[in-house]
Amino acid sequence: MNLPLGMALDPINRILYIAEQFNHIIRMINLSNNTIQTLVGDGSPGYSGDGGLAIQAKLNQPFGIAIDLVTNIMYIAERQNNIVRCVNLQTNIISTFAGNVTRGAGYSNGIANNSLLNGPVAIEITPTSILIADKGNNCVRSVDKQSNMMTKIAGTGVAGRGADYVFANNSALNQPYGLSLDSTNNLLYIADQRNNIIRMVNLTTNLIFTIVGSSVRGYNGDGNNATDVMLNYPSSIQWDATSNLLYIMDQYNNVVRTWDRNSNWRWGCCFGL
After folding, report:
1. InterPro entries under this entry (predicted)?
2. Same domain for 128 and 175?
3. Which of these, 87, 98, 96, 97, lies nearest to 39 by C-alpha position?
4. 251: helix, coil or strand?
């Protein structure tokens, strides 16, 4: 493989999907028989293939991926093409879902495939929307499944360290990288990478809070209050509903850390890499 970054699991069919950034493909591993095959991309960078078979399409640095298990559609954040593609996993037909390659990188809302993105890196799926970490635009975007309209739900579009306890789209982010959803409580977690913090958005009230990190880059704080600790470029994050833990890849500290929502909002180190 060549810089595998994004992963998505289909637990029903026991298939693991992997985005290989520099091979410009999506691989799938059948966890029942341990076989691997290429599902999306011909292996060369570019943009082509909409309306055709996904394996014949050209991608450009696929990053985050997500599977909508209800509609059986895969979403792919293509960082260099500044778009999100979608693949119907029943027909294997690919199309552009959000962003516009012809118009290039930028920022605009409206119909998703005529809007502009800037280096999308992560995707999450709610029952009503597709959420996109629009890293270069310093915000999180949302595409409504029914209307296909894109809006901004977190971040101002300008890099900064925004206030807490305010509406999320009025609070600045600085290169949001990872997204993870607690669907039970309607909470969205955001790795606010260059601010070295983890933010949480209540999707019911649209209020934003900092739950991990002091905004000071470094390493300390295991077992202490989560907002007093230092992180060093947090990247991918994953919520575990069974244990009520948020797993955080603390990239330049070379560790995976955990935040425990049930333990007085305290946290500890999980393991080193």
Report:
1. 6-blade_b-propeller_TolB-like
2. no
3. 87
4. helix
- 133 and 183 share one domain: no
Tell me the per-residue pLDDT of 78-106, one tens digit each, with 9 for 90 and over: 999 999 999 999 999 999 999 999 888 89
Please check whether residue 140 is in contact with residue 208, taking contact to mean a CB–CB distance below 8 angstroms.
no
Do 150 and 203 lie in one domain? The reply is: no
Q: Is the pTM of this model over 0.85?
A: yes
Q: Which one, of 181, 93, 106, 94, lies nearest residue 136 by Cα?
A: 106
Q: In the β-sheet with 73-78, what is the strand arrangement from edge to edge?
A: 62-68, 73-78, 83-88, 93-98
Pairwise CA distance, residues 233 & 65, whole Å: 20
Residue that terminates a domain, selected from 126, 154, 182 = 154
At residue 269, the pLDDT reads: 60
What is the pLDDT, as a whole number, of residue 224?
Answer: 78
Residue where a domain stops, chosen among 154, 179, 198: 154
**Structural domain span for residue 48:** 1-154
